Amino acid sequence: MSTLKVIDEDYSSWKCSACGKALTPTPIELEYLESKFTVELPACPECGLVLIPEDLALGKMAEVESLLEDK
Amino acid sequence: MEQDSLHEWESKCIQEEPPRCKAACPIHVDGREFSKLMAAGQTDKAWAVLCRTLPFPTVTARICDGPCIKSCLREEVGGGIKLNSLERYCAENTKRTPPFRPLPARGKTVAILGAFLPGLTAAWDLAKKGFTVTVFTNDSAEAFATIPQEFLSVDIFKQELATLKKMGVSFDENSSPSLELATKSLEDFDAVFADPFACDAKALKISPPSITTLKTEKDGLFAASMPEKNTSPIALIAIGRKGALSIERFMQSASLSAGREREEPFETKLYTNISKVEPVTPSAVPADGYDVESAREEASRCLQCECMECVKNCAYLEEFKGYPKVYARQIYNNASIVMGTRRANNLINSCMLCDLCNEICPENFSMKNLCIEARQDLVKKGHMPPSAHEFALRDMEHADRDTCTINKHQSGTSESEWAFFPGCQLPASDPSAVDRVYKYLCDSLTGGTGLMLRCCGAPADWSGRIELFDTKSESIRADWESLGRPKVIAACPSCMESLHKAIPEAEVTSLWSILCEHKENLNPVLPETISSLQDPCTARHNDKLLADVRLLLSDLSIEFTEPELSGLHTECCGFGGLLSGANEPLSKKVAEKRGSKLDGDGITYCAMCRDLLAKSGKRCLHLLDVIFPSGNSDPAARAVPQYSERRENRVRLKEQMLDVIWRTPSAPRPDYESISVSFTSKAKELMEERRILHSDIQKTIQAVQKSGQALESTETGHKLTYYRPVTVTYWIEYEEQDANNYLIHRVWSHRMRILGASK
Ligand code: SF4
Ligand code: SF4
Ligand code: SF4
Ligand SMILES: [Zn+2]
């Protein structure tokens, strides 16, 4: 599966509290209503904790969710 | 959802029925479209509309005597549109006639005996359809002498004859139509049409031909009896048209009679409301016809007949830019999709189920029933979008949780003649009012008044969840039976509806009817201004409720007015059918629109009507604000509690009532509630807009306390974490102020699940 790039901004000012590492773009698997996609998202290189920015959640992601709901 | 029932639905909506002018015209000219273009000054386009239907239009447009005028709906409000005079103006002033292009030749021949209006029309129509036509006559211009010449010159007539010839019609001008010629033509041609003025059924020595098809006893011969004297020219043209259509079908070996019920002038089923139309009489037609101005003026009197009654009165129907017939098709298409996008889901879930359309529609089209059926179908097939009703269903479950429900006899008694059923939204909106009403009922009624604090199950019903509603019904029944089957007093009209479905044998009375009978000790604080009554849509068919509320208001000297749509025709506030969850922007629009129709402050007897109207900016009272005053000096401006507060209100109401009335402790609160969170004003705003609850946030914080997994901004020091209690993932950006004390900055959510780093 190809990895979707949806984030332009830099989220390296966020770090993982537990590991102390700055977040780096990482392919993350998301799922909704039995559809899966891989999206590049900021995540902790150590433990994998992910960040889904507000704009993404309310924009593109919400769009895809509603599309899938009508499938 | 079977296709048969689609046809039933479709045929119920008569919006696509033709206007009266078109139905009454013997050849069904579209007078509405024509008038619209004429009124817009688009003479050439209007002419093109006529050319679609009229044979040899420059002649026909000048000779029609307008039998449609007396059928036109305008006739009832000033006088029928003079379509014939407008047609004449159009013919005289158009600059462009669309070309008549006959279809490719079919290799079939037709003989036409006689060149009067019926014969010429048959020739015109058949030539257009690609038949090879020969007209037998003594004089190809013989019709001219028989038609009105007031506005017609022989030159124009001859030009149209020339057009006919250009279309491939040949004229055999040395033959008199007769029985012999007919017999011979039947041998030489594939079909024969006899113009009744040249050779009617009598001359052909045959019994009268079929009125609907002009078929005669001789195969291939189509003829008519002699038309009555003074038959309208346009009706004569219709005879030729009828013969031509029969001949075409005869050549194709198709059924001659099928689907021709509406060929003659007929009565349309179209309904157009003219109750608010001002009468406007037509000006006299000048002797030499209309000029630009007067033609536009006359055409502008056309009402552009259509129904759209329901659409004009429902913001939802208007929103989707169609009308129920179209919607029925879209909804059925939606149901038949196996793979692909179901585009009508939003349409299906946006109806308020208020049933106003049913009352307004001349054919009683109930969009409510259609949408409920469609929702149930979506649920059954597992295609209902999960997000549409989830918030409302969760809210229902909240109200039915043991932290919120009470099912008890009146304190100190062991029997209930009555049970008060406030519903789930009144306790959420105005909990103290529930308390005051309950005490009053206990004091006023004898035989014991129990309390049933819970949801009525309406959200399950409205969202199309049949099984869930059944489960709710069973539990309501169990509660009711455990109180000894008391008479139920419902505060909310939607509850009344649901309770009738859930426990049909229960006697359910509205709180307002009870108060009507026990008003002695009421101490209302009368509003200073006259309010306008908002009947909730679920009260629409509840005559007794509608009457008793009015009785109560006047008995208590509470003055009120009514909006134009009221009582049986009341409008929904935007909550009905769970609209506010499924389509929030539309719900807002509906609430604003309804609010604007209420003069002064609103006054209503449904907690949701009150809150939705108030949220939209309308000052609005609940009847209880007046009858059981809380001490608030301006109750019409009472703040609408936010979603989280609504839940908290329910929980506290139970705690307080149990404590004060029954002196028992309530169910323990879940432990996440001990987490102390506070909010920036921005966070509060976001929570309301995004429907994220206080408890969602506490659960998320609790999760991070256990896992320690959070992100941290190196710029602001804020932390960010997420948690997915069930189906929604919540993100919380917060500041840990000191141990167990959190300030929330931002919140958002999504429904997708995070599976983790891809392998
Ligand atoms: S008002 Fe207009 S649309 Fe209606 S019947 Fe008359 S001409 Fe036709
Ligand atoms: S919202 Fe009410 S009036 Fe509008 S379509 Fe639905 S049931 Fe009919
Ligand atoms: S009121 Fe609405 S549903 Fe009824 S016929 Fe008219 S357009 Fe159709
Ligand atoms: Zn980490």
Number of helices of chain B: 32
First and last CA, distance of chain B = 44 Å
Strand tally of chain A: 4
State the distance separating the first and last CA atoms of chain A.
20 Å
**Using only CA atoms, what is the Rg of chain B?**
36 Å
Cα Rg of chain A: 13 Å
Number of domains of chain B: 5
Largest interface: A-B, 40 and 34 residues
Helix fraction bin of chain B? 40-55%
CATH topology of chain A: Ubiquitin-like (UB roll)
Layout of secondary structure:
The complex is a heterodimer of chains A (71) and B (759).
Chain A: E1 3-5, E2 14-16, E3 24-32, E4 35-43, H1 54-58, H2 60-69
Parallel strand pairs in A: 1-4
Antiparallel strand pairs in A: 3-4
Chain B: H1 3-12, H2 20-24, H3 31-39, H4 43-53, H5 57-63, H6 83-93, E1 109-113, H7 117-128, E2 132-136, H8 154-166, E3 170-172, H9 179-188, E4 191-194, E5 221-222, H10 233-251, H11 292-300, H12 309-312, H13 315-319, H14 324-336, H15 345-349, H16 356-360, H17 367-380, H18 386-399, E6 406-408, E7 418-421, H19 425-429, H20 431-444, E8 449-453, H21 458-462, H22 466-482, E9 487-490, H23 493-502, E10 508-510, H24 511-517, E11 531-534, H25 543-555, E12 560-561, H26 579-582, H27 584-596, E13 602-604, H28 607-615, E14 620-622, H29 623-627, H30 643-662, E15 676-679, H31 681-690, H32 694-707, E16 711-713, E17 719-723, E18 729-738, E19 741-750, E20 753-757
Parallel strand pairs in B: 1-2, 1-4, 2-3, 4-5, 7-8, 7-9, 9-10, 11-12, 11-13, 13-14, 15-19
Antiparallel strand pairs in B: 6-8, 16-17, 17-18, 18-19
